[in-house]
Design brief:
2 helices; 90% helix
Length: 69
């Protein structure tokens, strides 16, 4: 399975879990804060992957442009 799809599902699951925990314990409970930090890490990973993909597309386009001329 594509890692982007897996990461997307992990993000969705983490968001749902954060919402559930916040409903049960309130926003300032330790387990809610831990889940929030976990979700932040997943979001950061998603953003790093997205930026890397953009750079690869840009480099690929530049390489094709240079080889075309």
């Amino acid at each position: 399975m594509d890692s982007a799809i897996v990461l997307g599902q992990e993000l969705e699951d983490a968001r749902k879990r954060l919402y559930e925990l916040s409903e049960l314990y309130g926003l300032s409970h330790a387990c809610v804060l831990e889940q929030s930090m976990f979700l932040d890490e997943l979001i950061n990973e998603h953003n790093r992957i997205s930026q890397l993909k953009k750079k690869l597309v840009t480099l690929s386009f530049a390489e094709k442009t240079l080889n075309y001329h």
